[in-house]
């Protein structure tokens, strides 16, 4: 089988979705680690210098653009597969099993993924666009050259309760998407073994599914509470 | 017991199809689900009406013919049970039972509840065999096989090709079936020489038949009357990925 044929099969496409998905899983860890500096009440020094470093380092910029392409590949192939899956059952059942044979969130990957995609677009236009192309205030810390004050932009945004609610909602979608997504990607790679299944399930559900989204969601909530 | 049956009636593959309701009284709890249909069909024939077409053969849970999607469940509500082994004690007096055929583009309806599952045969024909004669049964232990592997191959070989996995899957995916057929050969030494070609050919045929892809919801495993595990799907993925990366 040629590569072109291989990546055109259902499993080949799933492999691409899984691989890009696992890459995105590694990204959320890095993103969350950086975000915690938002909670440091130092007038934004830690966060702004971190943001400036991320925004100007060549390698990180390369990865950042790669990341956006990876998200698009992940979404486009997943949509292709979903269209194929829908076509595989042209006449729907009158009665469905509900949650008796599978978990609700495992059937909602496309829905949660779409919610996440919309969230990412809003999130990027709000902060990433402001940082790179917007007109935001500048600050300088000691000897360090002037940097954009993204810290102020973020704290200002999270004064609004509806924006906080939107971010929490986005993280609920991330939670459900990853609870199934991590395990599902491992299964697609053929990683299913009695000695490691427990660990894969634990990482998928507790680390990626609960801890990471919770960590992301806590930040806007804390910033909101501090500004009441 | 008195029951109301809502059964899918469809003249042929071109017909749009519709549900029809039937009242059946004097249903014994000892009847199998198929016997309920026998009684109903007898009545329909006596009334000069067209009996309901449904597949059945062995009626002892091993042929895989009795494809009925009952109240949203493949082969009804009981765990690891075919329709013929489902008994009416699963239901209560006055219940309404909705019976539909397997729904998948790859399984076109022939009539009423009978569907054409020859897509499965074509997947087998694409590679689910060993192409050389492996001879007579050799002496026990002449070919060393790990007991764990032998048991796993046997468990995969328990697949009866009923199509419940496809019926239960939200994507009408045939991955559990294909993975069982690939596993039973991949786990044994006789199946190893052709394992790459087999994985590629069977997956290609599976896609060609119009089955959906697997999203690992596990519904197939939950509904399989023979308890085939989705660990077989992981094995199929490993087989296919290895083949894709290393086949010549």
UniProtKB/TrEMBL annotation, chain A:
<feature type="transmembrane region" description="Helical">
    <location>
        <begin position="199"/>
        <end position="225"/>
    </location>
</feature>
<feature type="transmembrane region" description="Helical">
    <location>
        <begin position="161"/>
        <end position="179"/>
    </location>
</feature>
<feature type="transmembrane region" description="Helical">
    <location>
        <begin position="104"/>
        <end position="129"/>
    </location>
</feature>
<dbReference type="InterPro" id="IPR034804">
    <property type="entry name" value="SQR/QFR_C/D"/>
</dbReference>
<dbReference type="InterPro" id="IPR011138">
    <property type="entry name" value="Cytochrome_b-558"/>
</dbReference>
<feature type="transmembrane region" description="Helical">
    <location>
        <begin position="59"/>
        <end position="83"/>
    </location>
</feature>
<protein>
    <submittedName>
        <fullName>Succinate dehydrogenase cytochrome b subunit</fullName>
    </submittedName>
</protein>
<keyword id="KW-0472">Membrane</keyword>
<dbReference type="GO" id="GO:0016020">
    <property type="term" value="C:membrane"/>
</dbReference>
<feature type="transmembrane region" description="Helical">
    <location>
        <begin position="15"/>
        <end position="39"/>
    </location>
</feature>
<keyword id="KW-0812">Transmembrane</keyword>
<keyword id="KW-1133">Transmembrane helix</keyword>
UniProtKB/TrEMBL annotation, chain B:
<dbReference type="InterPro" id="IPR009051">
    <property type="entry name" value="Helical_ferredxn"/>
</dbReference>
<dbReference type="Pfam" id="PF13183">
    <property type="entry name" value="Fer4_8"/>
</dbReference>
<keyword id="KW-0001">2Fe-2S</keyword>
<dbReference type="GO" id="GO:0009055">
    <property type="term" value="F:electron transfer activity"/>
</dbReference>
<dbReference type="InterPro" id="IPR006058">
    <property type="entry name" value="2Fe2S_fd_BS"/>
</dbReference>
<keyword id="KW-0560">Oxidoreductase</keyword>
<dbReference type="InterPro" id="IPR025192">
    <property type="entry name" value="Succ_DH/fum_Rdtase_N"/>
</dbReference>
<dbReference type="InterPro" id="IPR017896">
    <property type="entry name" value="4Fe4S_Fe-S-bd"/>
</dbReference>
<dbReference type="InterPro" id="IPR012675">
    <property type="entry name" value="Beta-grasp_dom_sf"/>
</dbReference>
<dbReference type="GO" id="GO:0006099">
    <property type="term" value="P:tricarboxylic acid cycle"/>
</dbReference>
<keyword id="KW-0411">Iron-sulfur</keyword>
<dbReference type="GO" id="GO:0046872">
    <property type="term" value="F:metal ion binding"/>
</dbReference>
<feature type="domain" description="4Fe-4S ferredoxin-type">
    <location>
        <begin position="150"/>
        <end position="180"/>
    </location>
</feature>
<dbReference type="GO" id="GO:0051539">
    <property type="term" value="F:4 iron, 4 sulfur cluster binding"/>
</dbReference>
<dbReference type="GO" id="GO:0051537">
    <property type="term" value="F:2 iron, 2 sulfur cluster binding"/>
</dbReference>
<dbReference type="InterPro" id="IPR036010">
    <property type="entry name" value="2Fe-2S_ferredoxin-like_sf"/>
</dbReference>
<protein>
    <submittedName>
        <fullName>Succinate dehydrogenase/fumarate reductase iron-sulfur subunit</fullName>
    </submittedName>
</protein>
<dbReference type="InterPro" id="IPR050573">
    <property type="entry name" value="SDH/FRD_Iron-Sulfur"/>
</dbReference>
<dbReference type="GO" id="GO:0022904">
    <property type="term" value="P:respiratory electron transport chain"/>
</dbReference>
<comment type="similarity">
    <text>Belongs to the succinate dehydrogenase/fumarate reductase iron-sulfur protein family.</text>
</comment>
<keyword id="KW-0479">Metal-binding</keyword>
<keyword id="KW-0408">Iron</keyword>
